[in-house]
């Protein structure tokens, strides 16, 4: 307590802070660092008396009716001091930002370590496959850094061992399904065949995302936000996008719906378009949650027909890589910032979301991420395979599951979510291309070649062999593309190699893969990314 009483005496919050009280919690916005910090009601009652006039004793007396509760007051003074929120802080913007990052990160890191250690012990005890593979090693795992002692779980493991050896002892899949405690998901099978796993529908507690994300806050009260999902017309467990009455496509207690879609989204027929519009008008979503390719195709179809873009309060993309071209189209047509979610059906959907800086942050109530190359965690800024440990589910959890995506971990994003792990998404492992000299270039690396170019709406860059590249592209209406085409050719030579040959083929729609997706990069050579 020593430090507290010396630097505080009479604590006073900085006058430039913006305090917003809500029904469930309070937020302090720091205009210097642009961070939003959250506090519960009781903490806020205490903080509101940090006015330079109340002593810790008098605050304890006033809030708790008991001057001996002074410890609780002092702990909070320490916390806001660490966060640089007291007038005595007198830090410059940069020092303040790093002090806040540290104060946010360290406790969250400790909590992550505890969750990981507990999950590994639980899995080694309850899940037959992990009992065999982890066994006594569980005792050596005290945190995220120790996970490297354990084997990874592959998609093939899931195909081989679900459900028999990947469900907790004493739980029966059939009973869980009958009681509707879980559903089944089938992943779309873009990598080596279908994959089945458990799905938990409707979380009792809203994840941090709903409480903290600026776009979700803008969309309305947490419990009432309505989300329209717009993606491939494929059924996946609880989420079904096939033709059936709208009411049957609702889930999450009626707060979400799957909007009708099309198997040829780039050639959307007028009747399909009318149905989609009709459903959006009926449901009136606050949030559009869409596959970016499908959302852009919808926007272009509406514009061709001279119809207005439906109004929503927030736009999130998911399911597929968001290209720089699609981010710009969606931002301009909806007049909103575009955020992304990252997830996969077998890791129970949304595991991470993007902040204002465009980086992903991991929802740590559910998942802990590692980024691996050759079995070891990569350094910040390097590309590694996303490896997920699920830390919260009752009947099944993965320990070190490799989703098949690549990302670069980020040490410090400098945003409001610095307590959460951060990364930049690089794309799918199997969609990595190679320069003519054999260096890997991820989907994100390829997508950078299209920055600022505006002559096409959709593209797919196919690598045929070491030096032959084919760009399939759907032209944008009314844009002369000769300049952009030249720029792209130059950039391809710079990045992929001087001897790289680029053929550009204009098409009316891109070829669709079996899961009805349109990956921006396709590798048809024998080179593959070695994880
Ligand atoms: Zn961030």
Globally, the shape reads globular
Give me the Rg, rounded.
Answer: 25 Å
Bound molecules: zinc ion
Report the mean per-residue pLDDT as an integer. 89
What do you see in this structure?
The chain is of the alpha+beta class and 531 residues long. Among the domains are: 5-91, Outer Surface Protein A, domain 3 (Alpha-Beta Complex); 432-523, GMP Synthetase, Chain A, domain 3 (2-Layer Sandwich), CATH 3.30.300. It contains 15 helices and 24 strands. The strands form five sheets. It has a 13-stranded mixed β-sheet with strand order 7-8-6-9-10-11-12-13-18-17-16-14-15. It has a four-stranded mixed β-sheet with strand order 23-22-21-24. A three-stranded antiparallel β-sheet has the order 1-2-3. Strand 22, helix 15 (482-496) and strand 23 form a beta-alpha-beta unit. Helix 3 crosses helix 4 (70-82) and helix 12 (292-304) packs across helix 13 (324-334). Zinc ion binds next to loops.
Which features characterize this protein?
single chain, 531 residues, alpha+beta, Outer Surface Protein A, domain 3, GMP Synthetase, Chain A, domain 3, 13-stranded mixed sheet, 15 helices, 22% strand, globular, binds zinc ion
In short:
The chain is α+β, with helices and mostly antiparallel strands. The protein has helices at 2-7, 41-47, 56-64, 70-82, 93-126, 128-133, 155-161, 173-178, 208-212, 214-219, 270-283, 292-304, 324-334, 443-447, 482-496, and strands at residues 18-21, 26-30, 35-39, 183-187, 195-199, 227-230, 250-251, 256-258, 287-290, 314-317, 338-344, 349-354, 360-362, 367-373, 376-377, 384-390, 401-410, 422-428, 433-434, 440-441, 456-463, 468-475, 501-506, 521-523.
């Amino acid at each position: 307590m020593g430090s507290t009483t010396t630097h505080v005496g009479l604590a006073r919050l900085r006058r430039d802070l913006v305090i917003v009280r809500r029904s469930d919690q309070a937020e302090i916005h720091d205009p210097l660092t642009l961070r939003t910090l959250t506090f519960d009601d009781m903490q806020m009652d205490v903080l509101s008396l940090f006015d330079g006039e109340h002593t810790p004793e008098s605050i304890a007396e006033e809030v708790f009716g008991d001057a001996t509760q002074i410890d609780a007051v002092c702990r909070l003074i320490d916390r806001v001091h660490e966060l640089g929120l007291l007038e005595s802080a007198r830090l410059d913007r940069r020092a303040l930002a790093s002090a806040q990052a540290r104060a946010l990160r360290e406790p969250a890191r400790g909590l992550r370590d505890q969750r990981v250690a507990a999950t590994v012990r639980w899995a080694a005890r309850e899940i037959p496959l992990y009992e065999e593979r982890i066994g006594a090693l569980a005792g050596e795992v005290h945190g995220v850094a120790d996970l490297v002692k354990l084997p990874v779980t592959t998609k093939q493991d899931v195909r081989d061992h679900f459900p028999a050896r990947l469900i907790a002892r004493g739980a029966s899949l059939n009973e869980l399904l009958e009681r509707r405690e879980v559903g089944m998901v089938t992943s779309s099978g873009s990598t080596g065949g279908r994959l089945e796993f458990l799905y938990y529908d409707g979380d009792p507690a809203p994840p941090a995302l709903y409480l903290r994300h600026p776009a979700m806050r803008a969309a309305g009260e947490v419990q009432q936000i309505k989300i329209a999902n717009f993606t491939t017309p494929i059924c996946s467990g609880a989420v079904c996008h096939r033709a059936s009455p709208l009411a049957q496509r609702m889930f999450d207690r009626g707060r979400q719906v799957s909007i009708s879609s099309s198997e040829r989204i780039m050639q959307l027929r007028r009747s399909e378009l009318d149905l989609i519009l009709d459903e959006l008008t009926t449901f009136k979503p606050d949030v559009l949650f869409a596959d970016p390719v499908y959302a852009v195709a919808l926007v272009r179809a509406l514009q061709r027909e001279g119809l207005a873009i439906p109004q929503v309060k927030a736009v999130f993309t998911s399911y597929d890589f968001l290209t720089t071209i699609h981010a710009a189209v969606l931002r301009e047509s909806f007049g909103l910032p575009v955020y992304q979610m990252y997830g996969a059906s077998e890791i129970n959907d949304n595991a991470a979301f993007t902040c204002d800086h465009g980086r992903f942050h991991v929802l740590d109530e559910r998942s802990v991420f590692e980024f691996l190359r050759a079995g070891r965690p990569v350094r910040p800024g390097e590309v590694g395979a996303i490896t997920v440990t699920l830390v919260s589910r009752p009947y099944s959890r993965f320990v070190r599951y490799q989703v098949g995506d690549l990302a670069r971990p980020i040490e410090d994003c400098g945003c409001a979510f610095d307590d959460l792990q951060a990364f930049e998404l690089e794309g799918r492992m199997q969609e990595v291309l190679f320069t003519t000299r054999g260096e890997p270039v991820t989907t994100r690396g390829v997508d950078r070649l299209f920055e600022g170019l505006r002559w096409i709406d959709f593209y797919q860059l196919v690598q045929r062999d070491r030096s032959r590249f084919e760009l399939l592209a759907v032209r944008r209406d009314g844009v002369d593309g000769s300049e952009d085409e030249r720029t792209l050719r130059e950039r391809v030579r710079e990045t992929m190699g001087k001897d790289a040959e680029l053929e550009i083929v204009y098409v009316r729609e891109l070829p669709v893969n079996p899961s009805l997706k349109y990956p921006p990069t396709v590798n048809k050579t024998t080179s593959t990314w070695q994880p």
